[in-house]
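quick one, 606 residues, struct below
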Amino acid sequence: MDIRNIAIIAHVDHGKTTLVDQLLRQSGAFRENQAVAERAMDSNDIERERGITILAKATSVEWKGTRINIVDTPGHADFGGEVERILSMVDGVCLLVDAAEGPMPQTKFVTSKALALGLRPIVVLNKVDKPAAEPDDVLNDVFDLFANLGASDEQLDFPHVYASGIGGWADATLDGERKNMDALFDLILKHVQPPKQIARANEPFQMLATTLGADPFLGRLLTGRVESGTAKAGDTLKALSRDGERLEQFRISKIMAFRGLTQTPIDLAEAGDIVTIAGMAKATVADTLCHPDVMDALPSQPIDPPTISVTFGINDSPLAGQDGKKVQSRVIRQRLMKEAEINVAIKVEDTPGGEAFVVSGRGELQMGVLIENMRREGFELSISRPRVIYKEENGQRLEPIEEVIIDVDDEYTGVVIEKLTGERKGDLVDMRPAGVGKTRILAHVPARGLIGYQGEFMTDTRGNGVLNRIFHGWAPHKGAIQGRRQGVLISMENGVSVSYALWKLEDRGKFFIGAQEQLYQGMIIGEHTRDNDLEVNPLKGKQLTNVRASGTDEAVRLTPPVRLSLEEAIAYINDDELVEVTPKNIRLRKRHLDPHERKRQARADA
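---
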């Protein structure tokens, strides 16, 4: 069967997964009476809860006698490592762009990766049925983006379609019939070239592993595109590292291919097809699986470096071990090393004491998803404040800079620009109207200045602003940036919080806890109204007497507490504070730094 391999790439929430739903549905991948969940490719619990794609996943459809292998990729910059790997195993990309929002930071990121590999994108102007859609202007913006990224003449001559993923149609013209996705299917067959690897079918077998999975019965699973040759179950292969070092020799136990939403065992893996192989014990992402006679590893794409680091430690609070079962540092280390194997954008290092581990990655959301997965698996952890990763070049200290695009109501532009360029040492690059009553702001801001800014931004814009960010480059260190302004309220006692005590303390600040919650000394229970930390007693009850009089007792009505999400808590804390994460609770607490660590952190921030 003829084959086409494509990836769907776009900025977050521009409709990739919804479009793949329609391609599956209209190609006949589902039975007519089959119950299929919305956004069927988002199989992970956290993906469904948050409405974002975290892991790249493949599927395939058949159209007019051709098998189209489709890879759905993440849209958030924190999971860009997935996109970089996936693009190396496809022959074309469908670039989705929201017809109202236009090209966004992640659009620029994924497009630059695709163009660098020589891929010729198909531009899909999605959501053209939105009231604020301006598809023709967005098409011009996409052309300008391609030109700025150094696209070749062949890449600049890109085809495009107008589509609505939710409506289930795509047309070559804006005033088309709007019936189905046939125009997109036909354009993929016409524009995307068949895999070049098919011509190498008679050479020895080679495959570059791009994603790693696991099965309780089959063990380790590696997925990739077959670069040359053929293989069948029972064949002997060897695994080579990126440097060409031999890792192991193994026997293929099973070969599977994507058919609709399921993986189906197949007899033969052929050149150009995307398959999953089982049987190896050590091989991982970016390794080459090949015939024993092959001596050279396939080249793999370099991955952008991590920009922030977080320290994962054991939970040593007085309430440790009450919720989770996995509390030892040895178990935490094993889990983090397993994650680093699967996710090439994450790096794990041991600290000198061995009780904590420095995990480096792309952003707070990526760290938040990892921590959320671990707490659901029964882990208890203590998490430090994220710290940016610096690098030295020619004796100069460089720090990561983020490109920030903000869409906000006109009335809030002043406070947003003041926060970004004044307090957070950012540079304003561009500001232009973005529809009725809206302004789009483009700025380059130090990554450390954006840690903890999301919550402040939502407050400043009354929840109406949209902030997108992506790694832009390195720049000389811009000096100290002021952190959180308010101090915190700290419990001075161990026990259970009392309504009366919290009621009496309400004028001191806002609380993160409610009544009848377990507390301990040193736990952060709220935010102080001033800039200093304050120790309070949330356990002190009302003084009782033997005198009763009508009207003397006041009704205790507490203001509802502020419940911080995991990412909000991690971004909120200062360097001398920790987030305690358990399967059931997220708590904040003070930590005591020894003098050496305090000096080291002071030097790092200077």
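The chain is about 25% helix and 30% strand.
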